[in-house]
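Page 47, continued from p. 46.
Same chain as before, 111 aa.
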Amino acid sequence: MPIPEHLQELLRRLTVGDETTIDRLMRGQFITDLDHRTAVLVEIAALVALEAEGASFQAVVDNARAAGVEDEEILETVMTVSPLVGAARLSSVLPRLAGALGAEIPAGQNS
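Result:
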């Protein structure tokens, strides 16, 4: 399936570093066809890949729950990206994600 013309133009502008387009993208001014539930799961995956801090996980987990996303779906998303991000990064972020989910991790089991 070919890429729609408007998306080709957006990709071209981003590829050449068009500052106005990049600024609009960073401010969330582009509308996508992703529903909110899918978008917040993508955000969870990105936070794992970036080894985000606990506050970032908390904000996105709260947003996901408000969108009706179940904790199981959040964990399934993390499991899906795990082979891509690797064990070291995953073990680094899991305590932060667990905290955002309100999971109790016994001492000595979060390293």
